[in-house]
Write a structure and sequence with these properties.
This protein is an alpha/beta fold and about 200 residues long. The protein has a single domain, classed as Methylesterase CheB, C-terminal domain (Rossmann fold, 3-Layer(aba) Sandwich). The protein contains seven helices and nine strands. Strands 3-4-2-1-7-8-9 form a seven-stranded parallel sheet, sandwiched between helices. Strand 5 and strand 6 form a beta hairpin. Helix 4 packs parallel to helix 5. InterPro entries: CheB_C, Sig_transdc_resp-reg_Me-estase.
């Protein structure tokens, strides 16, 4: 998709936060998207990845070496800051409370996952409404589909990785089936969309 078409999808839209979900193949997908964002990126980027507990603590180190954004693990009762990439901690669900701060919980897994993408996306949709951008990437289960539907219902911008390009297409296909997203894009266009969003500040 060309820049003009991507810019049209952003036209008139105020953005306060970006939330990204991914499972199998997600680390590689994020490495293609996020290095293009500058340190002064004007929104927080909240990311939920399904990874082994032993790998979770390595995500901050891995991405801090590759991106200009600050990279942190989300901390309970802390408000997300612009220009920061947050990862959901291992074995905790990550929510956004009405007050706009993170909340961690040990509720049962959703779609066999904790953290669950759906929980983060659904609570973020409640807080940010039409000012939220939701992005769902490669994955092997249905987690994230309901979350993306909630973002769309709240008026947020929904973006799904093209299943034909995804390492595992199950997750994006389910999101598309449940509620048609605003955009279905390859990774290069998702990266460009986020870059163009900085030019769209209201």
């Amino acid at each position: 998709m060309d820049d003009a078409s991507l810019a049209l999808a952003l036209a008139g839209r105020r953005i306060s936060a970006v939330v990204i979900g991914a499972s199998a193949g997600g680390v590689n997908a994020l490495i293609e998207i996020l290095p293009g964002l500058p340190r002064e990126f004007p929104y927080p980027v909240v990311t939920v990845l399904h990874v082994m507990r032993s790998r979770q603590n390595q995500l901050v180190e891995v991405f801090q070496q590759r991106v200009a954004l600050r990279v942190e693990e989300a901390v309970d009762k802390v408000e997300p800051r612009p220009g920061t990439l947050y990862f959901a901690p291992a074995d905790y669900h990550l929510s956004i409370e009405e007050e706009g701060v993170f909340s961690l919980s040990l509720e049962p897994p959703v779609h066999f996952a904790r953290p669950a993408i759906d929980i983060t996306m659904e609570t973020a949709a409640n807080v940010y409404g039409p000012e939220l951008v939701g992005i769902l990437l490669t994955g092997a289960n249905h987690d994230g589909a309901a979350g993306m539907a909630a973002i769309g219902a709240a008026g947020g911008l929904t973006v799904v990785q093209d299943p034909a390009e995804a390492q595992v297409g199950v997750m994006p296909k389910e999101a598309i089936r449940l509620r048609a997203p605003d955009l279905v894009l390859p990774l290069r266009d998702i990266r460009r969309l986020l870059q163009l969003s900085m030019e769209n500040l209201q």
